[in-house]
Specification:
mainly alpha; 2 helices; about 100 residues; 2 strands; two-stranded antiparallel sheet
């Protein structure tokens, strides 16, 4: 490979070609989405599909949570351990 830099025109052409291919990919995904929705309607399995999809999403979330490293502990100025990881907010209490 030569050490010659591409011209601005060449860079523009490459980026333009990438944008064209990206648009084609987007169109293909939209078509596949439409086909999948049509098939689900045809099979009348919308509810079953949603339950399965929810189950898969929960499985992926639990897998991601297991893969996350545990937060490190550090000491604050008073010498007490403090958790430096991100904290999840507690759900608001509802009055019944």
């Amino acid at each position: 490979m030569s050490g010659k830099k591409p011209t601005m025109n060449q860079v523009k052409n490459v980026i333009n070609n990438m944008l064209i291919e990206l648009d084609r990919l987007k169109q293909a995904v939209v078509r596949l989405d439409s086909i999948l929705l049509t098939y689900i309607e045809f099979k009348d399995d919308g509810e079953k599909w949603n339950k399965w999809l929810d189950k898969k999403i929960k499985e992926e979330e639990s897998k991601e949570n297991k893969d996350e490293p545990k937060p490190k502990k550090s000491r604050n100025s008073s010498g007490k351990n403090t958790n430096t990881g991100t904290r999840k907010k507690r759900p608001a209490k509802t009055n019944k």
